[in-house]
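Predict structure. Chain length: 192.
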Amino acid sequence: TSADPTAYLPASREDVRFWHQMSTRFGAFELLMVGLEEPGAAFTSDGLSRLARITDRLAEMQGEGILWSRSLTNVATQQLDEEETVVAGLMVPAIPRERADLDALAARVLADPQVPGAFVSKDLKAYVILLRADPRKDAGTIAGLVERVVDEERGPMNEVYFGAPFVTRVIGKQFYDPLPWVVPLFALGLAI
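Prediction complete.
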């Protein structure tokens, strides 16, 4: 199946052609996003730990077609130190266990101009994982791998999937899943 959901849309439409051209030009068909939402309190040790495990497991799947995986737990950022020198480092070098340490990290995250709204919601209840699929691999299969890893690690967090590979996977499942029943029913119909 194609990772391009426009394969299921009328190619003669100008808006479809434009969307396809722009998405191809900027690699949008290989970009996947996973949203994870804390079920209760915001910015918890459990939520951050689950986010880190998912991000790390996905980052280790290059052989399966995931080129990279980025989230709040592995993104590098730049900050000024006490001497006004720019210092680069991980936004979350370690996951705090104590509430006071979580609050200090939350303040650091919210003060960073690159992270809120991109990797974490401004209310700190939801996280985003960005992934790039290898265009030489089947994007629908990669979407399935991502869903499996997220499902295994997310615990009570709610998940939402964004991106063409997920859309294509849903369309493909709706179309292809019933097919194993169609052929035997057709054969039965012919036999009767």
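Summary: Helices lie at 14-25, 45-59, 99-111, 139-153, 164-176, 179-191.
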